[in-house]
Structures are given as structure tokens and as C-alpha cells.
Amino acid sequence: MNRGATEDQIGAVTSKIQSFGLDANISRGTERTVIGAIGDERKLDPEMFDSLSGVEYSMHIVKQYKIVSRESHRQDSIIDVGGIPVGGTQVQVIGGPCSVETQEQMDSAAQHVGAAGCKLMRGGAFKPRTSPYTFQGNGEEGLKMFRKAADKYKLRIVTELMDARMLDTFLRYDVDVIQIGTRSMQNFELLKEVGRINKPVILKRGMSATVSEWLMAAEYIAAGGNHNIIFCERGIRTFETAYRNVMDVTCIPVLKKETHLPVIVDPSHAGGKAWMVPALARAAIAAGADGLLVETHPNPCEAWCDADQALNPQEFQDLMGSLRGIAEVIGRNL
Amino acid sequence: MNRGATEDQIGAVTSKIQSFGLDANISRGTERTVIGAIGDERKLDPEMFDSLSGVEYSMHIVKQYKIVSRESHRQDSIIDVGGIPVGGTQVQVIGGPCSVETQEQMDSAAQHVGAAGCKLMRGGAFKPRTSPYTFQGNGEEGLKMFRKAADKYKLRIVTELMDARMLDTFLRYDVDVIQIGTRSMQNFELLKEVGRINKPVILKRGMSATVSEWLMAAEYIAAGGNHNIIFCERGIRTFETAYRNVMDVTCIPVLKKETHLPVIVDPSHAGGKAWMVPALARAAIAAGADGLLVETHPNPCEAWCDADQALNPQEFQDLMGSLRGIAEVIGRNL
Amino acid sequence: MNRGATEDQIGAVTSKIQSFGLDANISRGTERTVIGAIGDERKLDPEMFDSLSGVEYSMHIVKQYKIVSRESHRQDSIIDVGGIPVGGTQVQVIGGPCSVETQEQMDSAAQHVGAAGCKLMRGGAFKPRTSPYTFQGNGEEGLKMFRKAADKYKLRIVTELMDARMLDTFLRYDVDVIQIGTRSMQNFELLKEVGRINKPVILKRGMSATVSEWLMAAEYIAAGGNHNIIFCERGIRTFETAYRNVMDVTCIPVLKKETHLPVIVDPSHAGGKAWMVPALARAAIAAGADGLLVETHPNPCEAWCDADQALNPQEFQDLMGSLRGIAEVIGRNL
Amino acid sequence: MNRGATEDQIGAVTSKIQSFGLDANISRGTERTVIGAIGDERKLDPEMFDSLSGVEYSMHIVKQYKIVSRESHRQDSIIDVGGIPVGGTQVQVIGGPCSVETQEQMDSAAQHVGAAGCKLMRGGAFKPRTSPYTFQGNGEEGLKMFRKAADKYKLRIVTELMDARMLDTFLRYDVDVIQIGTRSMQNFELLKEVGRINKPVILKRGMSATVSEWLMAAEYIAAGGNHNIIFCERGIRTFETAYRNVMDVTCIPVLKKETHLPVIVDPSHAGGKAWMVPALARAAIAAGADGLLVETHPNPCEAWCDADQALNPQEFQDLMGSLRGIAEVIGRNL
């Protein structure tokens, strides 16, 4: 309450709390009176109280997310992707090109991704692009090529869903992990749709989403019944212009504390340049990430998009080696 | 090019530019060589060049947006909303509650919004909410109530579309202006859909979208054929925690320079508190905005959402008075 | 406290609060226990408690600033600058060039600044520059030229102090208002020095300082005995690259609520381009600012620094006219 | 140049470039004309050109920093701190408490820091604090205690200088490494002072400084003749409120590319909580940092400041073990 709040004002707040079936605890300090709501405060919205007179501000003490919270589920969850575990002691690197270009490119990529030891592969058939005039992905044709190439090398596939109307198509091609991109993290209708199916979902962090908003976005999926959620940090937007985004390693230990779900990192989109990827990938694993999404292309100079951030097959394989070493230092394996 | 780039590297860049049908201009400085592409560089993607060896970085000189740019259309565009102009010398204030609650509330709101001199009214039937456990709007029933209330007072209606699958419903209730919310600014599939129809669109700025990304999002709509676009600044996300967002007044003169389309401001969502709204609303008009989206509710303390940011009818009417004064000082009317 | 905090942990926190002479209020909710400290909590540091086991987090309820707070002094303070009031109903525009270049330039600038109706003039003798290789100001010689030019036109002078060791020199030239620049907002030793003298101080906001940190910086000055403090917003750093800074108009009503001291705005440094200045200046006054710092130069194209952000004499005079109109609409004069 | 710039406008820019002794290269595209300056463009300031008519914008192609740049010195520099190398294959961890409290605390800290294998120790005698009402450090008395404790265990000392007037005192106690804190990164007068002496300097990144501004701040020191500079990343300010700062690992590979000087990281101030420090410390080393500044205290719960971010002796020693493992994986030792 404001300094000098009256008894009537205090009473009004107390009544409003009680009208929702909670109790009120009144603590009178020397300068301020603080009123606490006792009960399930998720029913209350702070803004209901901010508009009452005499209220300085109001806030939640209990977190708004439930199903995804570590409090509701103490052990680490391991997500099963067609028999491949994400989470737990095993670290999973998901390699592949930015976009599905041709069958030949995908076959070649699947071959080198598998050879480097990966069990999952990434690739975009539908691409969110800032400009309407640039390549938007191969669409359904791309899904078909991706599925075919991955099957040949026994890889599970990860690809981005941008539009709820395409979900059936994704299921038809048996996409193993549905990726929700950074621009869709708060596309609540899309989150509700993937919450209704039983497929693992990689939920990328919005480019300027707080950890709390990200957890709430996951809660949207979980609330629909789908608890197979993998968080993916991909760099946040800051004032810095020397690189595309700032990869936020701090979110890794913080998420590990707040949620039982696995956390992976995309160092390729974070840095935006292939030469930065090995340093960032190593940092993510050292900080405790459960896996990575890494762009790698059979021939980066000829990639149709994000050419400057893909590793070539040799760089990718070298990176896998040093990641294996770091994983072992912290008691994991890759 | 990097310092010490070789002639072969310079040649490779030059060839790549020429392979897209453009010419190359090579400028050799004392420390760096700069290569310029001459022709329609929108065909080129800087990342195609960043991956070539010897390249330090590459960038666009020409802007990526065309239809929405001031260069393509010198005069200010005036958007016609059922006979009401947005843009030009007239300033339009669009008042109304955060969400459609009941028919009675909407009737009362429409009455006081119209009485204050507004021609357009706002209200949300579908609400994007951070938590899946809070009120999500009245949906189609809300559209019906809104339409009915607005018709009684001859007001045009503005309401948010979150899902392409609801577009037909919006058209059925003859929504006058479709609002694309901050979280949907880069929902490219949704932008393409509203690009195909012939209805005015208010495009809110993403909460951390650059002006350039915002113009590109508008270009997605325009590229589909719908040029009836109104930009709406609603506060950006920064490090500051004392208020919800930072209302960016600088974007007003900058957009006026870059685009011919109207620019309005939402001071209610920017500040997040009703007591800040008059100062912010006045600042927006003084900076040259073509209008405002202002939350006002017949009884803010009982609003179902964002209760603490709505003006009551008297506050709203008082604000209209001072805005009229400011509009006149800068040669406009309201 | 964490969910599941033990009675011993609750007891330890309670004891620690009591050891500082305060009382503890314990509120046991269904999911969390909240412990409040009752008494002058400025003696406590939240981090003292965050390190105790069982504590989830701790925070201040009462604000850390006292002397500068609106709670300690209800009326608006008016700062007396050699007989000229800053704060109150009068709006003060402080015009002048970025840097003191020559006597001739300063005489010419003082003439046009005075002619436009200003009572105070700005100009830098010591310039903080990002690069060590660019012009760093004329130093003491510049102060002398500035004083001479200002005296001729009966203007008070405002100039930046970067180094405590130069304070005596500033006093010798009888600088009327000492400006603390954005990079010095948390130069605590410098703040303490200007806190010991009895001269008005303009305290610019750090380029990414929160309002709370800014108020605390002012509290450093006030704690030394100098209460003649004027806040100056000059744009904050964000992700946006289309303009130098984002002028934060929201801080104006917020500061007016939190502090009794005057608030001015520098639209020139905020936007960084002369063509943006009129819109930003009008927005600042409309939002309730008590004045402005505006760069104006007799011949902007020949200015030695920040050439692209200075208004020429005619533009400056035109701006004064429209500002006067806006001031009147909101019950002030200029 | 703007679209439609006239020949006269192009001529004026060309003349201005030539008046500084450089040549101009004119490249006429289909939509824009681009003018390049050929010669040492550090003499030119883009803002000199932005104010000319017909100019859209101007920018530097060559970087503004020279002495600190990798281009001027290809090999990694190793800074000699009283016989201990910073930079090169050896990784240095600098442990110690936030502030110097008592002789006993410092003796105890020096003992455990040395026992863990460190060669350098940190500790603050002068503390920059946001509030004037909190503990400001023990000052000169603190330096004396620190020196004494460090000498007993043969440790080099690192401590923060906030005020140029204290430099002589620092030299008198033979401080081995002078730390310039985040709030002083652009205190140019202080940078010039430490540029005149021959002591290693740790230059912390400003809390919202770009990499480019940071390199320019180092250039201020280097331009004075002192090339013994160590960069220290300590977390940047963003929109995220779940942790104090965001530790920017991306700056490590970027600085390694741009400068020959060593780069260390302070994971304690970045995260702000002791439980986050191990993950962040490991990430920094994995990303290629040359060392760390880590807060550790004999008894964190009784620390006088930042109690919640210091590791206890056991945690510190455990961390050293895992860091050693990671260093070895990437070919370094600790």
C-alpha cells in the first residue's frame, strides 16, 4: 500500500482478496502496510489490485507455471524421441542445414550428420524470413525430401512448424520433433495446437522473451496435455551490434533450477557466424545444456540461406570431438 | 573485404555479384577494398557473401522494403475506414476497453467513447495472454456484442486477429479494422492472409522489433495487395523495470520519413498504468502521431483485464480536450 | 522462503532481522512463507538474506532514496539558477552548441540563443569522446570564452564536469550549472564532490541507467548537502539501431511522481539528428518536462562535433514558437 | 547519398573528403550513389558528412582502434603480472572476496585462494555502491590489509581504482593489477591516468558497452603508452530480470579476433548468485577465456557485501577441478 493508505483502502483490498476465497495477512510496517493473499494466488491477477486506490503495487509470490515447474516434478524429465533420449546424462547434438534445398543436398547432409555421431537431424522446410522477397522454403516437398534422407541414415527429424494449418501435414510425414521458432514462442493458438498432440516439441525462446514468459509459453503446451517439451535457447536481442544475438548461457542453470524439462542451445543462430559456433557450442555444453542444434551443410558457400553460419562437414566433426571431451569432464557423455 | 584480401578473393566476390546480373564497383582504399553491387541489390542476400573467403562483412545499401517506402510514394497515404480517414490532418483517437466483457459494458463504453468525439472504437474479443490460466476473451460471442454496441453509436470497430483460421469470422461480423498484435508482428502466415483481403490493418510493433523489421512486416501485407496499413507503436522492451514498456516517440518522425503510411500510438499498453496515459498520449500527438489507441472503460476497477491501465470516462474526456489543443498547435485537428 | 523451508530456516531469517533492531512479521501461505521486516529497512541489504539457506529471494519494499523522494518533500522544488527558476510553471530551454570552438562562434551562438528567448546557454569545454583520437574540447580556454560570450548576453551557463580535479576551475569561472554527463552518472566520487558545493547540478541519466539507479545517483549528491539537482533524460540504449538512442518520455511522469526535483530532456543527444529534434522536443514538453537542453549552432555544417544534430538559428527559433504553444495548452509558459 | 542526390551535393561531399587529404571514389548505382574516402579515414568523423545536404548516412569502414587491434599485432599478447603470465596457454583464476573486511578475513581468504592453486587474488578496498547509505569499502586501510595477506601467501593483488586522485596510494601499496570497474569504463580521465603508468590494467566492460566502445576505451589506455591491458567481461544489461546480468560469452571469440590482448570473465558479477557461478565459469573457459575473476569468501553468509554471490572455500576448490578438465580439453592448462 502507499504510505498513508487509509483503513478503508486497506479494507477494500482485504475484501477483494477474500471475495476470491483467499485469506489476507496484514503486516503494518513503520512506513508501509503490506497485504498478503493466502491460498492459491494463481486465481488473482495483480492488475486487479493495482487499480484500487491506496495500492502502490502488487505482485505474485508464487510462480505462475505449474506443470513445467521443478516444484511439481523433482526429477529431470527425459524426452523420448523415437527411442532416442533428450535429457539425462546423454548429450544430443542435432545437426543439419538451415533449409531443405534438394534431395541430393539432404542425402549428403544426412550422411555427414550421421557419420559425426548424431541421432537427430535438423532442417527447415518452411522458413520464417524477414523479407517477403527472399526464399521461403520448399514447403511440403521439403518435408518429403527430408524424411527420405533421414530414413536412409536412421535419423530422427526436427523441423519448424509456423502455421497450425500445416500440423496434419507434419504428422503425415511423421516429423519426430516439432520446432516452434523464436517468432512463434507467443503464438498462443499454435502452442495450444501442439499441446493437443503427442509429439516432442522444441520450444525456442522468443528473441526478447524473459525466462518467465518462456516457461509460461511451455505451460500453454503442457496445459493441453503434451509434456514432451524441450527448451531451446537461441540468443537474445540486446544493444550489441557486433554479433546477431547474445547467447544467454545463464538461462541454462536457471532453467535447470526452475523446470524438470531438458534445455538445448542453438549456437548457430545465436552468433550468426560459423567461426563463432565452436566456442559457443562448447560454452553451452560446459554450462550444462542437454544438447545443441547446430547448422552444418555439405557446402556452406552454396547454401540458400544463412550460408555464413553453417559449419562444413569437417568443422562439424572436429567440434563433436571437443564437445565429447567437455561432456565427460562434467560427467556426461556424447 | 578483409585487410590483405587477395585478388582471387576479390575476383570471387565480383563474379558472384555478376552471376546475379549486377555490376561490381571496386574501390581500393589504403587499408580496405570495398566492392559495391550496382543494380537491383534486393536480389542479393548479404549472407551469400559473408561466407566467401576474404569478406569482412557485407550489407545492403538500398532498403529492403518497397511498396511501403516513402520513396515509392511521396505523399502521405490516408486510409479510409468506412468513410473515416486515418492519416492526413485529422487526428483519430480510438478509445475502448481492453476486452469485450458483456453487452452492457460494451454499450456503456460505446456511448462514452462516442460522446468524447471518437469515430472508432477498440475492444478485444480474442486476447493473447501470457498465462494459459487467465481469461482468454469472449471469442465470437464478443465480436457480436462489440458489433452491436458500435452500430448503435455509429462507431467503426478495431479488434485483434490472432489466428488465420478466424479471419472468415472477422469478415462475417464486418470488423472495420483488423489489428495485428505485438506478438504476431512476425507471424508471417497471418500477415500473408490479411494481405489478401481489402480491409484496413493496424500493425502493432513487435515488443522488440526494429523499425526496419516492422517496415518489412508491413511489406509482407502490402506484397499481397493490401496497402491499407496503419503502424501502431505500443512501447518497446528495454532494461527499465519501473514501467511496462518504453514508449518510443522517436519512431514517429522516423516512420514519417521512411513510409507514406499513417502512424498511431498506444500509450495505454506502453506505460501500463492509467496515470501515465495522459502524459504519453500528449507526447505522441506532439511528436506527430496520426492517432491513438487508448484504453477506457466505464468502470476500470471492475475491468476483467488490464484494469490498472484504463481511463474512466471523465479522464478520457479530459484527455481529449488537451489533445485537441496540442493538435492545433502543430496544425492538425481532432 | 522456498517451498518447504524449515522452521529452523525461518527462525534464522527472523533472528537476523531482529539483530538489526527490526521486528519480523511471518505470513504463512499455502505454498510459501513470506517474512517481512518492520522498521527502517534501509539498514538491511537484501543480499544479506539471499545467502541464508531456505531463502528464495528478498527485496526492499521501501525505496532506497530519501532526500530526493516525493515522499520527503511533497511540493515541486524550484531550482534557482542565478535568479532564473528551473521547475515550476515556467519551461526553460537551454540552447547552445555541442562544444566551445572559438570566441566568435560563442558570441554568435549566445546572441541567437538569447534572441530566441533563452535565459540559459549550454556548451562543452571538456568533451567526453569515444575515441582518444578525436577533438577533446578546448578545456579551460573554452570556459573563458563561454563565460565571456554568455556575460555579454546575460545568459547563465551550463557545462559538463568530467573530473573532480577540475571543480575549482569551474568555480573560478563561475559556471552557473554543473552538468554531470551520462557516462559519469555513477562516478560516485564525482557525485560526492558536487554534493559538497552549492551550485545547481544537471544530472544526466546514464545511457542504460534505470530510473531507480538515477534517483540513487541524485541521492549521492543530496546526501552531501547539495539539493539543487535537475534530472536530465537524454535517451536510453536499446536494441534499436535506426537512431542513436530512444528518448524515454515515460520517465517524465514517473520522475514527477517519485521526486520533487525538476526534470528536463535533451532531445538532441537522444535522437542524434537535427531533423528529429523538433518532434522530440515537442513530445518532451507535452509529457510535462520542465525544460530542454537543445543543441543549436550558428552554422551546423561547420561544427567541430555532433554537427548533424545541431539546429541552425532559424530552426531553433521556429521550434521555440511551437514549444510555447504546447506549454500553454498544458498550463505552463515559456 | 539519398536517392535523387544532385551533382552539386555529390561534389560537396567529394570536396570535403579531399579537404582532409583523402581521395574520393564515386560509385553510381541504379538507386543510390555511394562515395568512399580513400586514405586514413580515422581523420574523418561520419557526423561531419551527415549534416551535408543529400547525404543519407555515412559510416567508418576501417575500425577506430589501432594499438589494441589484432591487425596491428598478430600474435596473442601475454601480460606479465609480477612474473605471472595472463594470456597464452595458461588459464589464470583470480579468486577472492568482494570487499576487504578485516585482516583476519583477508588472511583466511588468501590462504584458501592460494591453496586452490591461484596466483592472483582479488578484493575491493574502494567499493562503488548504488546507494550512498551502504558500506563503501575500507579505503587505504583495506589496501594495507590486502597487501599484507597477499604477501604472506605470495599472491599478486587485483583491486579497483575509482578515482584518479587515489592512484599514488595504489602505487604506494604496489597494487599488481589495477581494475577499472564497469561504471568507469568510459571515465576517460581515469583511463588516461592509468595509461601513463606501467602497471597491468583489467578493464571491465561497461554494463551496456558495445564491444567496439570497449575496444576504444582500451585504446585510451594504450594511447597513453600502457599496453598491459586485460579485458574483463562481467555480464551485460538486458531486458531479462531473472538474473542480474547476462554473461556474454560471444564476446570472447569476437575479442580474440579483434584484439591481441587477453580476455577474462567475471562469472560472479554476471550471474549474481553463487549457485550459478560454476556453470558460468565453465562456459567462459570453454569459450576460450584466458582467466576468471571469481568471488570466494571464507564464510559467505557473513560477507559485508554481495554475500549471495561468493563461493565458499570448498565450492571454490571443486570448481577449480572442473575448470582444469575443461582447459585441458581445449589445449590449455590451469
From TrEMBL, chains A, B, C, D:
Sorted UniProt keywords: Transferase
Entries under SUPFAM superfamilies matching the protein: Aldolase
Annotated DAHP synthetase I/KDSA domain residues: 87-318
UniProt domain DAHP synthase ferredoxin-like: residue ranges: 1-62
Example of a GO MF term: transferase activity
GO BP terms in the entry: aromatic amino acid family biosynthetic process
Listed NCBIfam families: DAHP_synth_Bsub, PRK08673.1, PRK12595.1
Protein name according to UniProt: 3-deoxy-D-arabinoheptulosonate-7-phosphate synthase
